[in-house]
Amino acid sequence: MTVDRRMDYLESVRGYLSSVVYPVQYLVNLPVRVGDWMSEALTSRQQLLEENERLRAQNLLLKTHTQKYQALVLENQRLRGLIESPIRQGERVLVADMMAVEQDTSTQKFVINKGSKEGVYIGQPIVDAKGVMGQIVHVGQSSSTGMMVTDHEHALPVEVIRSGVRAIASGVGAKGEMRLDYVPPESDIKEGDLLVSSGLGGHFPEGYPVGVVSKVDLHPGDKFMQIRVRPVASLAKAREVLLVWPEVNEFEFETRPGKVAHR
Question: In a 10 Å sphere around its CB, with 0-12 CB exposed, 13-18 middle and 19+ buried, how is residue 101 labelled?
């Protein structure tokens, strides 16, 4: 009984001392615990930073792949458009890439990656998927210079599909338009009329879309109408063009160097 009584007494003393000492122990261990927590926090933050950097790199790589895929899709669409261009049976054509475009207040010329070694010649017609772009004005061995139909020095015989009226479509320069010269007031030409190459003079094949009449004016006392024409070819957006060899026996369509398809 004496021992039990003393043990109970000692147990109560031990509990009292523990309650007194615990705050001291907590304060003593607090720096260690804080250090461990900060170490874990810094480690976790570094891991997050590394993971974010890795994900950022993966995202950039995926975006690059997506851009390349989209570029291939657009190129495929452009080439399909060229295949469906208004080329007639018996005319050989060759695909050329646009290398440079010169556009100032009057001159509108461009350079392509085909030249005399591919048989390109001065005056050769150039078209795109929609219609006439212009003609070759200079030929080098591996590149050539073309002049757009909107260049102030370019002129092309055309015909109105609806009425059969014939005229000369001349470029007006930087406005990206053409005009019809010397058309008398009684001529049957209206806004919205489609113009095609007439083939007169034998310089350009007949029947290629050239432009659409966008404005017709006739002022009192004028001998001729003032007619503006909007080209149908995508002059500002073209990246590939077609060089045309009129009236050959076989139609050849070259999509890439060394690859020839027949239609």
Answer: middle
Q: Are residues 111 and 215 in the same domain?
A: yes
262 occurs within a structural domain: no
Q: Is residue 263 part of a domain?
A: no
Instruction: Give the span between the Cα atoms of 137 and 132, in whole angstroms.
Output: 15
Give me the pLDDT at residue 219, please: 85
Do residues 78 and 98 both lie within one domain? no
3-state secondary structure of 54: helix
Mark which of 45, 66, 84 sits at the end of a domain: 84
Long-range contacts of 6-13, Cβ-Cβ distance < 8 Å, separation of 24 or more: none
Q: What kind and span of H or E run contains 166?
A: strand 166-171
Contact 95, 86 (CB under 8 A): no
For the entire predicted model, the pTM comes to 0.63
Backbone angles phi, psi at 130, to 5 degrees: -110, -30
pLDDT for 252 equals: 40
Do 24 and 75 lie in one domain? The reply is yes
Q: What is the mean pLDDT of residues 222-227?
A: 92
Report pLDDT digits (tens) over 135-173.
999 999 999 999 999 998 999 999 999 999 999 999 988
Q: Are residues 112 and 56 in the same domain?
A: no
Distance of CA 34 to the CA centre of its chain: 58
- Clarify whether residues 163 and 120 are in a common domain: yes
Burial class (CB in 10 A: 0-12, 13-18, 19+), 216: middle
